[in-house]
Specification:
- This protein has helices spanning 65-75, 115-118, 155-159, 161-168, 170-175, 199-212, 231-239, 253-261, and strands at residues 20-29, 32-41, 44-50, 53-60, 85-90, 103-108, 124-125, 153-154, 179-185, 190-196, 221-225, 244-247, 265-271, 274-279, 284-285.
- It is of the alpha/beta class.
- The strands form 4 sheets. It has a 6-stranded mixed β-sheet, sandwiched between helices. A 5-stranded mixed β-sheet has the order 5-6-3-4-7, with helices on one face. Strands 1-2 form a two-stranded antiparallel ribbon.
- Helix 1 (65-75) packs across helix 6 (199-212), helix 1 crosses helix 7 (231-239) and helix 7 (231-239) runs parallel beside helix 8 (253-261).
- The radius of gyration is 20 Å and the shape is flat.
Length: 288
């Protein structure tokens, strides 16, 4: 059987700011090929500048870029709260300049404790890695205090998080290619959800959303991620002072160790009616 022909396209047309783009794919069912329209999650570089000086380049899905940068700066300890930010805005270049829309410049009122260290290291981060810019093991140590407080969440509220997150993942529904991070309060009410090709970007966006609203620290919130719980996810949660982190998939050994040391509750394989608590189960309220 002759295969159907796909028109060769050397370059995808991606409108500025788009989160997904159409593309024709060849699908096989057993031995039968068919052509169908699909949607691709967009991945583009975002350069973060601090006072005009390049600080980092991260691969991300466009949208909510200011939130992404705010969350990134908080997790990197370049800032400690919203008041540290003077200006956070896109580079305003000519309409045909490819950098327009893909560069954010930040001006600070006062720098955080890690500013000098962060300005003197490799700064490229892929969409798959939240630590790729770290140049040594020492750079991974954020020197943050363990979380404190009496925050708890019920089992019933936890079981409802997954369906609420899935319902809010609008771009994932179209592409199947994005991670999501969501913040809930301790009753299980969804407060914010963000999607991105990178797990760590999704977390930075949702934390940055709350940061720009002046609502950090997030000591009475629950963070949920659509994939696995890795070390960098836990590190970003600790920087935002989040005590409860839940994931649909598994945690890594380092994520569990980090949670134990910093008194964070870490939940994995969260599904309606079942979950695993890998660290500090005292925050999970069980029925009497």
């Amino acid at each position: 059987m002759a295969l159907l022909a796909i028109r060769p396209e050397l370059e995808l047309e991606v409108p500025r700011g788009a989160t997904a783009v159409p593309h024709t794919v060849m699908s096989f069912r057993d031995r039968t090929p068919t052509l169908r329209d699909d949607q691709l999650a967009v991945e583009e570089p975002l350069e973060i500048r601090l006072g005009g000086k390049s600080l980092a380049v991260t691969m991300r899905t466009p949208g909510h870029d200011e939130e992404l940068v705010g969350g990134f700066l908080l997790s990197e300890r370049v800032i400690e709260d919203r008041d540290d930010l003077e200006v956070i805005a896109h580079y305003a270049g000519p309409e045909d300049d490819p950098r327009t829309g893909n560069v954010i410049n930040v001006l600070l009122r006062r720098p955080g404790p890690a500013i000098h260290q962060r300005l003197h290291r490799s700064v490229f981060t892929s969409s798959a890695c939240g630590l790729c810019g770290k140049t040594s093991l020492d750079a991974i140590d954020m020197d943050l205090r363990p979380v404190t407080g009496d925050v708890t969440i019920s089992l019933d509220a936890l079981y409802a998080l997954g369906p609420a997150l899935a319902e809010a993942q609008t771009t994932f529904e179209r592409t199947g290619g994005l991670h999501a991070a969501a913040l809930f309060n301790t009753t299980g009410r969804l407060l914010a959800v963000r999607e991105d090709v990178g797990r760590h970007n999704a977390v930075d966006k949702v934390v940055g959303y709350m940061l720009l609203r002046g609502e950090v620290p997030l000591s009475r919130h629950v963070l949920m991620v659509s994939g696995r719980a890795s070390f960098e996810i836990m590190q970003k949660a600790l920087a935002a002072r989040i005590a409860v982190v839940a994931a649909i998939s598994a945690p890594s050994s380092l994520a569990v160790q980090f949670a134990l040391v910093n008194d964070m509750t870490l939940i994995g394989f969260l599904r309606p009616g079942r979950l695993n608590v890998y660290a500090n189960p005292h925050r999970v309220r069980q029925p009497a």
